[in-house]
């Protein structure tokens, strides 16, 4: 594109934006209200918001305009929430709350946005404000229980979820969360706890009294190393729980091959451990990587990338041979490794981990951590894996499929 054409397109875009703003301002409040309602019915909440804000500015005491603007603020906020734009969504919910101070939907939605940002203390304040207006809202009690759960207050979470279940007895997902919390509380009541500003560690009270400090030291090393690589340092304290294998299986229902789990808390089946060995350090680094990946990408990261990064971090501490990858007659299709691995055949699990690690290591070695961080952030913003890789590696002229092909060639496959 030549310079004059680019300049012309920019001028046209500016003209269109100014024209849209001018049109809103040139219409009267009734017309803007009508156009806003039509845009909302057509599913264009962003445009509806522009019209209704102008209408509200022109007629600040019109009740129908106030109600319409509140409805659109709620709808637009939920759209932004689904897109992972939590801060902007929370701002809209707060604006809606100012228009409808007794409508707890805005408070609940704002609390969801705050929880997504891990602003748990602020979310708790907002949820208690909602309960002050109406304490018969099951959804508010349920989210309050989640805040308690995520901040390692199991008994408070159980109380809140019991109240939610009284109000919504048919909620099967809530029943499952409550049952899980009760199992955890039973196991964790006898555990020792150690703390840092970034971690809350719970472990077998019968173990070595110095073990907690050693485990926290390894976790801090992971925090610093991965934070430096990906430029992210999660806020708040990450709960880390060391279980016996039997307790781990009861609480998580994980497959037998699982060496750990991250579900908002790092859970590791190593009860009775006496020393922080190299394999244990690897597990801690591996599981903490999942914390960082979720911080950047939310729940949108393909499993092969998530596990590949975790293996890369863990193998910096303990790096056994890649026997499954070396001996496999054929590689697994990465498309089959995008979702959960829970139902993978046992014979494929080790290959899935080693193959994912090998490809991610190839990416980091050849292109660097900076690109990986950009991919994770794009995924968190809602991009597909193909689109995220195309944007980040577009300057190299490479797609995800082409990168995978290059990696296979390097392996001699």
TrEMBL record:
Transmembrane segments: none annotated. GO terms for cellular component: membrane; TRC complex. One of its GO terms (molecular function) is molecular adaptor activity. Pfam families: Peptidase_MA_2, TPR_19. TPR repeats lie at residues 70-103, 138-171. Residues 1-25 form the signal peptide. The keyword Repeat applies. It comes from the Bacteria. The keyword Signal applies. InterPro entries: Peptidase_MA-like_dom (IPR039568), SGT (IPR047150), TPR-like_helical_dom_sf (IPR011990), TPR_rpt (IPR019734). GO terms for biological process: post-translational protein targeting to endoplasmic reticulum membrane. PROSITE patterns: TPR. Residues 234-409 form the Peptidase MA-like domain. This is Peptidase MA-like domain-containing protein.
């Amino acid at each position: 594109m030549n310079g004059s054409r680019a300049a012309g397109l920019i001028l046209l875009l500016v003209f269109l934006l100014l024209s849209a703003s001018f049109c809103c301002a040139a219409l009267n409040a009734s017309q803007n209200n009508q156009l806003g309602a039509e845009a909302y019915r057509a599913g264009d909440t962003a445009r509806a918001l522009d019209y209704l804000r102008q209408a509200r500015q022109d007629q600040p005491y019109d009740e129908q305009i106030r109600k319409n603007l509140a409805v659109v603020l709620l709808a637009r906020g939920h759209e932004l929430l689904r897109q992972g734009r939590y801060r902007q969504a929370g701002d809209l919910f707060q604006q809606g709350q100012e228009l409808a101070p007794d409508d707890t939907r805005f408070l609940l939605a704002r609390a969801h946005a705050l929880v997504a940002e891990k602003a748990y203390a602020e979310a708790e304040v907002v949820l208690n404000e909602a309960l002050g207006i109406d304490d018969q809202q099951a959804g508010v009690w349920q989210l309050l229980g989640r805040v308690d759960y995520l901040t390692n207050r199991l008994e408070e979470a159980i109380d809140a979820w019991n109240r939610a279940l009284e109000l919504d007895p048919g909620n099967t997902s809530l029943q499952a969360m409550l049952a899980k919390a009760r199992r955890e509380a039973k196991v964790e009541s006898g555990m020792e706890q150690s703390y840092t500003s970034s971690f809350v560690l719970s472990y077998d009270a019968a173990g070595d009294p110095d073990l907690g400090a050693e485990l926290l030291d390894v976790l801090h090393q992971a925090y610093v190393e991965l934070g430096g690589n990906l430029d992210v340092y999660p806020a708040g304290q990450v709960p880390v729980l060391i279980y016996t294998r039997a307790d781990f299986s009861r609480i998580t229902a994980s497959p037998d091959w699982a060496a750990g789990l991250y579900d908002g808390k790092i859970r590791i089946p190593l009860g009775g451990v006496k020393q922080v060995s190299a394999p244990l350090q690897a597990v801690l680094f591996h599981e903490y990587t999942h914390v960082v990946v979720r911080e950047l990408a939310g729940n949108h990261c393909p499993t092969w990338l998530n596990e590949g990064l975790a293996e890369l971090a863990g193998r910096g501490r303990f790096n056994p041979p890649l026997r499954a990858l070396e001996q496999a007659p054929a590689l697994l299709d990465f498309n089959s490794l995008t979702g959960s691995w829970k139902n993978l055949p046992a014979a494929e699990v080790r290959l899935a981990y080693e193959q994912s690690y090998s490809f991610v290591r190839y990416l980091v070695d050849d292109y660097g951590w900076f690109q990986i961080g950009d991919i994770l952030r794009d995924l968190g913003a809602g991009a597909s894996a193909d689109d995220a890789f195309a944007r980040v590696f577009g300057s190299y002229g490479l797609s995800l499929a082409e990168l995978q092909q290059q990696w296979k060639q390097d392996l001699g496959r």
